């Protein structure tokens, strides 16, 4: 009987679950909305519905399911399997008994870790980092996440909070960050930062095609509007994207200088912003990275995109139960 | 017959070698000056003399020697065992066939890595990080080095150049660094940076006790003079040390946010600068570090001091030959 595991990727708006074999092939997939109406209870119920649906289908098809892996925003306490913190976009999620709750419902081994950490594992096992042992992954979205695979295994750090690349300081006397610190990469190179710069550009120029893309509503200007305008050669938008690429490059160079991984993988929504962003980032890495580190580290775009987290969650499960 | 290995720590001025057992006890020690008069040839000869002396003594005492571990400035190519670069303070050392040359002379298994990486392993096995699996070590001297132990093993990165903490950018539009980049931690918090600030203070105030400590010779002002003056409550010196502690704290916070190790160990000459530096660094870490990461990471001073490298080199050897 062929074995499968369930990989679950919990996001702010949706939950992706898949029935995944040891080679990373997805036999069946299920997506449910993330229900945050009753805090942790409704989120757990939604995860159970996603996983439970797949388990029911698998039983009908007489497939063996050996475990469940879950990627979640924030950190998972390595001892208790509860959410230890850091999941600010999911109110009430902190403290949720993620691992024990699923284990009790499904009577299966359950493993969980930070979603971007599992993105990195997914890419390392089945994606752009295939065959590499030391991989660092950036997830560029509203915020910036990071994940590391070292020696082929997820690197969780002392509190499952390793690779918080968004909160590395790139300018100690720089912008205030939501986290309370100053000069974090996230306050320069995230989607939120790009949108803020886009709004500032629109305030200066009410004819801006950034503003047009947002339907003329300043408050609706998003990173996507800025990137779209840059693709249409809008000078103000292109300048924002270029500056963002510079900041991102400083952050990547720091990771290369400190981690010296075999490959840095850039994923998340912003990674699809196009050539200007990535070209500028790579040029900056050349200036800020140490020659000896650059020589051995590649920089590539994610190849799994939005399935990296689900596949990484499955990979964690395979790693824990079979050592693969 | 009790087994020993030879641990060798190659420094800019001296080579420390020791006959070390599996528990980290040093049975015999030998120090020779680093001879750089004929580049790599004379350095290799000096290492052979240090190790060879111990091997000869061991043979007389009928002790078994199972291998040699060497810590060196710069990076060691993991494939060839040659010096891959980064050892700027040892002219001619780049390209030296360190591992094969020693293996041929002594007919023993030889392992080598970056000296600060091995400091971290030494502390993790036998020092301030004893019992910890994930350890990050700062070596604060003329420059700033870093070393990481992950899962109890040295983390070398793709080119043995991991943990280059001195060259993480803490201010992307900041000071020029020797490495060609900008705003590196090393250009703010190293001994060289402290001496430069000390000289600037003396230029402003020719009555400075920093200058007196340097015998009135501005060009001789060193970090030590600044730290000594700070201990005597000189206001200018204390301000420099405090600022240095702040910069160092930003760097430590970055490592904690990115690596989330169980413990960060501060070693090197500057770590003995006293309470002002470390207190200020720890206070800064509290501001720049993420709460969830700080909760799980301790910050302590080195306990092995100048023997960390030699013991770490021995530990590398034990790890490679016996898996311990």
Entry summary:
2 copies of one chain form a homodimer. Chain A is globular.
What does this protein look like?
- Two copies of one chain form a homodimer.
- By secondary structure, the first copy, chain A, is of the alpha/beta class.
- Chain A contains eleven helices and twelve strands.
- Chain A has helices at residues 39-60, 98-106, 115-126, 186-189, 191-204, 209-213, 223-231, 235-259, 275-288, 291-294, 308-322; strands at residues 3-10, 14-20, 26-33, 64-72, 75-76, 83-85, 110-114, 135-140, 144-150, 153-154, 263-267, 298-301.
- In chain A, the strands form three sheets. A five-stranded mixed β-sheet of chain A has the order 3-2-1-4-7, sandwiched between helices. A five-stranded mixed β-sheet of chain A has the order 10-9-8-11-12, with helices on both faces.
- In chain A, a hairpin with a 5-residue loop joins strand 2 (14-20) and strand 3 (26-33).
- In chain A, helix 5 packs across helix 7 and helix 7 crosses helix 8 (235-259).
- At the A-B interface, helix 8 and helix 10 of A face helix 8 and helix 10 of B.
- SS element count, helices of chain A: 11
Across the major sheet of chain A, the strand order is: 3-2-1-4-7
End-to-end Cα distance of chain A, whole Å, is 18 Å
Q: Looking at the structure, what is the overall shape of chain A? A: globular
Task: Classify the oligomer.
Answer: homodimer
Number of strands of chain A: 12
Low-confidence stretches of chain A: none
The biggest sheet of chain A, with number of strands, parallel, antiparallel or mixed sense and barrel status, is: 5 strands, mixed
Amount of beta strand of chain A: 15-25%
Structural Rg of chain A: 20 Å
Provide the helix percentage of chain A: 40-55%
The run of helices and strands of chain A is EEEHEEEHEHEEEHHHHHEHHEH
Nearest-integer average pLDDT of chain A: 94
Main structural class of chain A: alpha/beta
Largest protein interface? A-B, 55 and 55 residues
